[in-house]
Amino acid sequence: MGRVTASERFLGYGALPIGAVLAGALATGLRTAAWVICVAQALCVLALVLSSIH
What we know:
There is one protein chain. By secondary structure, this protein is mainly alpha-helical. The protein has 2 helices and no strands. The two termini are 31 Å apart.
């Protein structure tokens, strides 16, 4: 259980700097960021609609 938790924290905290850099790059163009968010949300909805979870 301890190794699983350590691995989860390692991956989670390791992704934070990558997300911060991507968010900073995306924030330079506000219109681009809005489009990326809209597309990502549409893909999430599409994934839920097409999945076996109902």
